[in-house]
Specification:
This is Bacterial CdiA-CT RNAse A domain-containing protein. It comes from Paramixta manurensis. The protein is α+β, with helices and mostly antiparallel strands. The protein folds into two domains: about 130 residues, no CATH class; about 120 residues, no CATH class. The chain has nine helices and six strands. Helix 2 packs antiparallel against helix 3 and helix 3 packs antiparallel against helix 5. The longest helix has about 35 residues. About 10% of the residues have low confidence.
Length: about 270
């Protein structure tokens, strides 16, 4: 490949990895170099675990993955550091535990080595796949988390529902009308929880329309929805009175954003 990290191993290093043997004598330097590489990979794994801890996620799976992958990364870093310092082959505690258990069940040395290595790799990989599956499941179930749709810069890609249409005061709505004389009114959802629940229901109710739009998404898709209870308020142009409403509009933009095929460009209460 042209870009990305390329790992180059000497015949000595390759033999050590494939045979699971310690490299001794004149091969100690190669063992230390391999330990340095493992130290780097463990650090990257730890960085990934940190990202999982900070990621906004409607499920708790990312937090569980953060703990498990973080623990595994520290295990890998410890084993790699020992390898660098000692110049001998050092395996992680995860690997050793899996290998020992395999031997107790009657596996031979070669099979036990394969099982240990497989488990050592599967711990971070399995949780990474599970977290991905949880995100897909969240999308399929229609759970909406507006922070995943919101623009980080205020410009596209990404929406502006939170920035412009959630938790606004009467004065803020009036100021928006003053700054935007082209608007016929200004509105706000009561809070983000109310907005997310309402938008989730609206998207579920318009699933068929969204699927059809997905085949020919030349323009944004807008649809209106009527909730069973008030979800926010509005002030119409020429008035200063805030009026409660259960009606709102959702506008979708068909462009990949934050791992989603489309994002919520905006959503706002209507009258």
């Amino acid at each position: 490949m042209d870009n990305g990290l390329q790992v180059v191993m000497s015949p000595v290093q390759l033999a050590a990895v494939l045979s699971d043997k310690s490299v001794t004598g004149g091969e100690t330097l190669s063992n230390r170099l391999l330990g340095g590489l493992e130290l780097l990979m463990g650090s990257l794994e730890l960085a990934g675990a940190t990202a999982l801890c900070m990621a906004p996620e409607p499920t708790t799976l990312t937090k569980a993955a953060c703990v498990v992958i973080g623990t595994h990364s520290m295990d890998s870093i410890n084993a790699a550091a020992n390898r660098v310092l000692s110049g001998t082959d050092t395996r992680s505690a995860t690997y050793r535990a899996a290998e020992s258990l395999a031997r107790q069940f009657g596996a031979d040395d070669k099979t036990a080595w394969k099982i240990g290595l497989t488990v050592d790799i599967a711990v971070p990989l399995g949780f990474a796949l599970a977290v991905g599956a949880a995100r897909v499941a969240a999308v399929r179930m229609g759970r909406i988390q507006l922070t995943l749709h919101e623009s980080a810069t205020g410009a596209k890609p990404g929406g502006h529902t939170i920035e412009k249409h959630i938790g606004k005061s009467r004065d803020e709505l009036l100021q928006r009308l003053e700054l935007r004389p082209d608007l016929s009114g200004s509105s706000t959802f009561t809070n983000i929880d109310t907005a997310e629940r309402a938008i989730t229901n609206a998207i579920r109710a318009n699933t068929s329309q969204i699927k059809m739009w997905g085949h020919y998404p030349q323009r944004p898709l807008a649809f209106d929805h009527h909730a069973s209870s008030p979800i926010g308020s509005y002030i119409k142009k020429g008035s200063t009175e805030m009026v409660s409403t259960s009606k709102f509009r959702v506008v979708l933009e068909y462009k990949a954003y934050n791992g989603q095929p489309y994002y919520i460009l905006t959503a706002y209460p209507t009258w």
